[in-house]
């Protein structure tokens, strides 16, 4: 592509890729946000149905919430990776000079990507077994594998994201910085930026 | 397909009721002394904790096997929780990760919908002894339902009761209309919704971990469990009444992984079958002992008063009348069940209870 | 096997791998090494643990309490609390510090999250402390440790996780109530220390607010102060369970910030939910991995061996509680408290039960040690949060923490010796 298309074509491919990437990120953001709001509605709805109307109308509340939690967790980890926000014990890493940190980050992201692909493989096997068992969920009587299918998808996408986190550290913009994720410069290289609650990933 | 051999075994069991003395007498002592077993380790998972019926069953089973094989075969019982949830344990057995399991049909409902038949109200006889007789002898269960499970690599070798279910509430449930407007905590399946709808109660889903507090604060009004379980979970502390309702039984199945079992030598198969059969009367006594002790403890708890209501035959008949339409709903509407098993079992139950 | 497992996990942990990697890869490698011959039989159930870990309905309160705290942090709730507390006690010696501790305690009473407390109260109070002669390191030490009171004051995510891990019969409602006295003791200790510290350093006094001003700030804080009343009252009345209380918190926060105070436009809610979702994912993948770890241990029957090796056959109550404290304290110095509570609780609960320890009391000890450990150098997670939020080097953040750690250790011993401190309000 590069040889025949020249610079212009590369840019075009790049911009298509960027658009797909942004669209995918928007989808992840929507699902994360939507899931949290959905859980709130289910739990509050269940309380009101029971307390005000003595009704079991929200009998599916916990099952729907379970779906939402699974989506949040396993589709969320790739977004967390993109933002460089996975919880880690960075005490030693933080003391290391930039070059060492960069090498570490490249290795960490590469190994993590490999682990994610292994998990995608094994969880895929588990979902297939679930598919063949014809099991259904208790409340909504839906096929149970529909709930579990987010695991292999999530791990695969996250594996890809960690690969991208690896490669971004070889690009020009990473010349004098370390990237924790494609959208996240190492906080050690960015002392002046204001940290918000949104930047902390623990409870 | 693989059910052929096993069905013969259960066929034997049926006659075995009267002949059981012969069985465990002659062939039992023969297998213990004459057969040389290879050294083996079997893992046996349960859905309960040490001291509770299922775990004690597995422990007793392990002891008997050890004795019969002169320690050549060790059975390791696992408490609930060590290997994940009930659903995880069922999966582990299906995959052959463990060889044996006690499981309740409720947790395999997602795969074998027919397991829900045990949760019907007033379908089995109210008398625990008669129910146990049905469980021991029913062809619908030991042959037809077993075949359903074997499609999923689970072979139920025996069905037994951990005791009749009882209701607890602050209201004191004596007749169906007492349920009017109550919030009942129970598995949130369509069948359970229908069942309690019939009494006028609504079904609430609530996690197990919150149930004690929820009963205490009257967030929900009632729950059901066998008596020994109610006592060990201390639900009587936060409920004014306990109704011995006998509306159904907490059923457990002794199960083995189908492929593993079929691959065993004849001696091992016989050893397992024979021990499982002996255990039927043992576990009936064990659950009775535990449920009686639980009831005594609740009665004698001087700190927390609990009124014990034992339904009379007339009261039970009243409940039965309301519950029976739901049996039809089960047969005709519940997704994935085999109506033939229902019909056959219903007939067998009628024969045993002499109706 | 346990040694292999822990070595793998510690190496990956110290190399700054995302914490999910040691938690998942450790058990995975152990499966390959020790159960390689049975891999195809065990793998599906092993993988399923990723789901089993997060599918408990009790865990639903984690995202919801975070969501509620995120909404309040984005809005004006914390500011109103600060103004209210400051107008009453700001003028006393050490008033700024006492206000910080009191506000953290109060914000803890409406939020289950330690980190949210650091941001919501810590950030504005640090500026005031610095302006009034406090050294940055002592301001940060105060904030980190006071924020951890949020774990003890209801509602508390840590307690809910404990109840989940401990299993049957542990009432979250009772745990909530039991945490109140220990939480207040910690607050009192910090307040007294702050007053003495300000006397010794001769720090300046703030002007005293008039009663008119106090009434003004009280009125403004009235609705936020209704939070704990609604939560504890609602649970007590049986309107909702402790887990459902998290949903009610979200609703109340939305009503306050969006409808009444109008500090947040409704259109910003999805954005806040996104940030909640991100934290939930980052934490829950650890909970999922933690269950894999627990499963591998369970399959090898390690918990029984550990309890026997560490606790012997018939340990005394004091001995069990001391061992439990040490394990949780050390664990939380390295790993996220949620993960530590999930992993260690099931190991120790049977031993505690057979020693006759009240599981509510045990829960308070464990929650307390989790709070203490996560504020303790070298690796307590709160130190890194503070380092990131306040943009200060690690060493400066930890410089003034020793007096707090010392006070908390003493309180920890008191809680062990006097179970009444936890249990009095329940009985
Ligand atoms: Na009672
Ligand atoms: Na709190």
Automatic annotation (TrEMBL), chain A:
Transmembrane segments annotated in the record for this chain: 30-48, 60-82, 103-125, 145-163
Nucleus listed as a keyword: no
Full protein name: TRAP transporter small permease
InterPro entries, sorted: DctQ, TRAP_DctQ
Gene Ontology annotations of biological process type: C4-dicarboxylate transport
Native source species: Filobacillus milosensis
Subcellular location per the Swiss-Prot or TrEMBL entry: Cell inner membrane
Family classification: Belongs to the TRAP transporter small permease family.
Gene Ontology cellular-component annotations: plasma membrane
GO-annotated molecular function: transmembrane transporter activity
Segments forming domain Tripartite ATP-independent periplasmic transporters DctQ component: 40-168
Membrane topology, as annotated: Multi-pass membrane protein
Matching PANTHER family: 2,3-DIKETO-L-GULONATE TRAP TRANSPORTER SMALL PERMEASE PROTEIN YIAM
Keyword Membrane: yes
Keywords for the protein's UniProt record, in alphabetical order: Cell inner membrane, Cell membrane, Membrane, Transmembrane, Transmembrane helix, Transport
TrEMBL record, chain C:
Transmembrane regions: 6-34, 54-75, 142-164, 176-200, 221-239, 245-264, 276-298, 318-347, 359-384, 404-426
Major localisation: membrane
Location(s), subcellular: Cell inner membrane
Membrane topology term: Multi-pass membrane protein
Domain TRAP C4-dicarboxylate transport system permease DctM subunit: 7-421
GO molecular function: transmembrane transporter activity
Protein name per Swiss-Prot or TrEMBL: TRAP transporter large permease
């Amino acid at each position: 592509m590069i040889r025949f298309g020249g610079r212009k074509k590369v840019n075009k491919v790049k911009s298509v890729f960027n658009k797909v990437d942004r669209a995918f990120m928007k989808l992840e953001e929507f699902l994360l946000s939507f899931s949290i709001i959905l859980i709130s509605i289910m739990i509050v709805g269940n309380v009101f149905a029971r307390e005000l109307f003595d009704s079991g109308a929200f009998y599916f509340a916990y099952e729907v919430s379970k779906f939402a939690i699974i989506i949040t967790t396993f589709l969320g980890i790739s977004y967390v990776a993109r933002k460089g926000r996975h919880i880690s014990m960075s005490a030693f890493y933080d003391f290391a000079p930039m070059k060492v940190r960069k090498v570490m980050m490249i290795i960490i992201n590469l190994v993590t990507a490999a682990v994610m692909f292994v998990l995608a493989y094994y969880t895929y096997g588990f979902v297939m077994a679930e598919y063949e068992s014809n099991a259904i969920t208790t409340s909504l009587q839906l096929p149970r594998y529909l709930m579990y299918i987010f695991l292999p998808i999530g791990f695969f996408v996250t594996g890809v994201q960690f690969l991208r986190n690896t490669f971004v550290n070889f690009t020009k913009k990473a010349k004098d910085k370390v990237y924790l994720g494609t959208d996240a410069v190492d906080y050690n290289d960015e002392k002046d930026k204001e940290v918000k609650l949104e930047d902390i990933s623990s409870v | 397909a693989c059910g052929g051999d096993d069905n013969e075994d259960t066929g034997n069991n049926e006659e075995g009721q009267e002949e059981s003395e012969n069985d465990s007498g002659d062939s039992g002592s023969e297998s213990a002394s004459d057969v040389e077993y290879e050294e083996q380790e079997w893992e046996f998972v349960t859905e309960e904790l040490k001291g509770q019926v299922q775990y004690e069953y597995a422990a007793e089973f392990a002891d008997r096997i050890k004795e019969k094989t002169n320690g050549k075969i060790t059975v390791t019982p696992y408490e609930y929780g060590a290997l994940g949830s009930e659903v995880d344990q069922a999966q582990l057995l299906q995959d052959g990760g463990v060889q044996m399991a006690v499981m309740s049909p409720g947790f395999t409902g997602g795969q074998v919908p027919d397991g829900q038949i045990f949760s019907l109200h007033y379908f089995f006889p109210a008398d625990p002894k008669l129910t146990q007789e049905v469980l021991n002898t029913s062809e619908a269960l030991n042959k037809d339902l077993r075949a359903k499970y074997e499609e999923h690599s689970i072979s139920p070798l025996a069905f037994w009761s951990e005791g009749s279910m009882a209701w607890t509430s602050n209201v004191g449930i004596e007749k169906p209309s007492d349920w009017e407007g109550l919030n009942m905590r129970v598995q949130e399946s369509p069948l359970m919704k229908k069942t309690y709808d019939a009494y006028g109660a609504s079904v609430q889903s609530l996690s197990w971990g919150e149930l004690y507090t929820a009963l205490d604060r009257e967030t929900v009004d009632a729950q059901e469990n066998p008596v020994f379980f109610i006592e060990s979970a201390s639900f009587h502390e936060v409920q004014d009444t306990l109704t011995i309702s006998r509306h159904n039984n907490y059923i457990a199945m002794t199960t083995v992984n189908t492929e593993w079992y079929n691959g065993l030598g004849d001696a091992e198969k016989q050893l397992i079958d024979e021990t499982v059969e002996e255990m039927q009367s043992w576990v009936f006594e064990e659950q009775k002992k535990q449920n009686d002790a639980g009831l005594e403890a609740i009665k004698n708890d001087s700190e927390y008063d609990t009124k014990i209501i034992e339904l009379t035959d007339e009261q039970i008949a009243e409940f039965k009348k309301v519950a029976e339409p739901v049996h039809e709903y089960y047969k005709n509407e519940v997704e994935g069940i085999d109506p033939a098993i229902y019909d056959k079992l219903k007939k067998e139950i009628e024969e045993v209870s002499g109706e | 096997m346990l040694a292999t497992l822990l070595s793998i996990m510690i190496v990956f942990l110290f190399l700054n791998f995302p914490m999910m990697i040691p938690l998942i890869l450790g058990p995975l490698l152990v499966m390959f090494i020790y159960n390689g011959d049975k891999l195809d039989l065990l793998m599906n159930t092993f993988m399923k643990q990723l789901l089993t870990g997060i599918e408990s309905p009790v865990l639903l309160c984690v995202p919801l309490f975070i969501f509620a705290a995120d909404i309040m942090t984005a809005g004006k709730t914390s500011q109103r609390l600060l103004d209210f507390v400051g107008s009453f006690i700001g003028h006393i010696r050490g008033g700024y510090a006492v206000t910080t501790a009191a506000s953290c305690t109060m914000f803890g009473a409406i939020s289950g999250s330690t980190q949210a407390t650091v941001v919501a109260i810590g950030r504005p109070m640090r500026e005031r402390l610095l302006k009034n002669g406090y050294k940055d390191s002592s301001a940060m030490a105060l904030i980190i440790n006071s924020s951890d009171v949020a774990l003890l004051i209801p509602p508390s995510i840590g307690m809910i996780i404990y109840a989940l891990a401990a299993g049957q019969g542990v009432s979250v409602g009772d745990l909530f109530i039991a945490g109140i006295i220990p939480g207040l003791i910690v607050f009192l200790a910090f307040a007294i220390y702050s007053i003495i510290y300000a006397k010794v350093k001769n720090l300046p006094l703030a002007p005293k607010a008039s009663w008119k001003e106090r009434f003004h700030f009280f009125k403004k804080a009235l609705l936020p102060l209704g939070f704990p009343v609604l939560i504890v009252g609602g649970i007590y009345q049986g309107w909702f369970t402790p887990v459902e209380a998290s949903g009610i918190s979200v609703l109340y926060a939305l009503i306050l910030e969006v409808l009444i105070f109008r500090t947040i436009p409704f259109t910003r809610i999805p954005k806040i939910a996104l940030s909640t979702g991100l934290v939930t994912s980052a934490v829950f993948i650890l909970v999922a991995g933690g269950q894999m770890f627990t499963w591998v241990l369970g399959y090898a029957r390690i918990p029984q061996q550990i309890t026997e090796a560490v606790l012997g056959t018939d340990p005394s109550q004091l001995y069990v509680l001391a061992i439990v404290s040490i394990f949780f304290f050390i664990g939380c110095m390295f790993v996220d408290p949620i993960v530590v509570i999930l992993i260690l609780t099931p190991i120790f609960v049977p031993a505690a039960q057979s020693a006759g320890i009240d599981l509510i009391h045990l829960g308070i000890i464990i929650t307390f040690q989790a709070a203490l450990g996560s504020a303790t150098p070298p690796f307590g997670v709160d130190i890194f949060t503070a380092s990131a939020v306040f943009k200060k080097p690690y060493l400066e953040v930890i410089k003034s923490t020793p007096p707090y750690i010392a006070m908390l250790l003493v309180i920890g011993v008191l809680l062990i010796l006097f179970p009444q401190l936890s249990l009095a309000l329940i009985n």
